[in-house]
User: Which sequence fits this backbone?
């Protein structure tokens, strides 16, 4: 395991706080109520995460006899409480039950494990066979999903704005990738390093979906959270890597604020310095590189990004230009001075990020 400056897991949610803040101010209690409760849940979990970081979390290891090249999944049901992990309802190798949410969570954990193992030879989140735990039915109408440094947690959504958070497999992959980042580059969750943290989760969340569906870069929709928004919402997803800023434009949610290039970089003190907003810039760079290279995006573009994430040279306070420069170096080291290198260089150039 490669870490920089000590392991400092952060509390990461798929729905940005600025979205829930807007919902919490809505005059309709059917919308504002769940959003306010979700923000309260998140504040509690965020504080708990900080305390755990200070005192230390218990070490989690795979059970004796568990092969590192096989997942070890456990799904729990919180029963609409905030008690974690909840009641154990499905374990590794058991048959699907009648609860579709449980089955989707179990499948999503497996899909994430498969992509990392089969594409990159990584053995679970920590590369040492870490058990994959998830809790479903968390809270009452909870409008989020998160990785808390130890496990996945899914809300059912309010069914007004958000549906069940286990529906999009890329949401599961996104949150578990925060765990991979936690165990590797350990990027600081603020400003540009935080936006890179979020972008890496979007990148590999999208690749997990593409791998599961057998899609090429040309076939993929490059949306994060497609299927999560309720029918009343004017939008397709939480974010678009292909066209940042176009995922939704809704009278309740507002307009997707993500920029696609540095020209529109957003300077804000909210959302940890805009980690969910400015992540659109490196997201778009990956999309451009992957589609220029063609084929399956996890094979070349994904390999380059993975090499940077896990290679030990990415500092925890890295800015976009630092990351971009490392992807250029990784492309050259792995593929030489050919099309792969040119695609990566051009992608960063198009989004306005300088490489050294």
Assistant:
């Amino acid at each position: 395991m490669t870490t920089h400056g000590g392991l400092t897991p952060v509390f990461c949610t798929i729905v940005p706080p600025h979205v829930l803040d807007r919902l919490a101010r809505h005059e309709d209690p059917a919308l504002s109520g769940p959003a306010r409760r979700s923000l309260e849940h998140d504040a509690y979990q965020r504080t708990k995460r900080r305390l755990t970081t200070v005192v230390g979390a218990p070490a989690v290891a795979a059970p004796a006899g568990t092969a590192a090249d096989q997942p070890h999944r456990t799904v729990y049901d919180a029963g609409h409480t905030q008690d974690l992990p909840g009641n154990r309802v499905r374990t590794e190798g058991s048959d699907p039950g009648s609860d579709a949410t449980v089955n989707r969570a179990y499948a999503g954990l497996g899909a994430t494990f498969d992509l990392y193992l089969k594409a990159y030879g990584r053995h679970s989140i920590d590369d040492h066979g870490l058990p994959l735990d998830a809790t479903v039915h968390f809270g009452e109408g909870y409008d989020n999903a998160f990785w808390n440094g130890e496990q996945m947690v899914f809300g059912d959504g309010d069914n007004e704005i958000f549906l069940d958070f286990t529906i999009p497999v890329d949401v599961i992959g996104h949150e578990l990738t925060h765990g991979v980042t936690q165990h590797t580059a350990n990027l600081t969750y603020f400003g540009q390093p935080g936006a890179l943290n979020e972008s890496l989760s979007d990148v590999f969340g999208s690749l997990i979906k593409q791998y599961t569906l057998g899609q090429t870069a040309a076939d993929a929709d490059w949306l994060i959270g497609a299927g999560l928004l309720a029918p009343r919402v004017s939008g397709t997803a939480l974010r678009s890597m292909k066209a940042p800023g176009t995922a939704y434009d809704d009278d309740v949610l507002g307009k997707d604020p993500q920029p696609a290039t540095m020209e529109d970089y957003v300077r804000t003190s909210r959302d940890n310095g805009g980690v969910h907003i400015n992540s659109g810039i490196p997201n778009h760079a990956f999309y451009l590189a992957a589609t220029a290279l063609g084929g399956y995006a996890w094979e070349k573009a994904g390999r380059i990004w993975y090499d940077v994430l896990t290679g030990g040279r990415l500092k925890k306070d890295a800015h976009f230009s630092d990351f971009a420069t490392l992807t250029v170096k990784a492309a050259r080291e792995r593929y030489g001075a050919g099309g792969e290198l040119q695609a990566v260089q051009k992608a960063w150039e198009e989004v306005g990020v300088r490489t050294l």
In short: Residues 1-6, 51-59 have pLDDT under 50 and may be disordered.
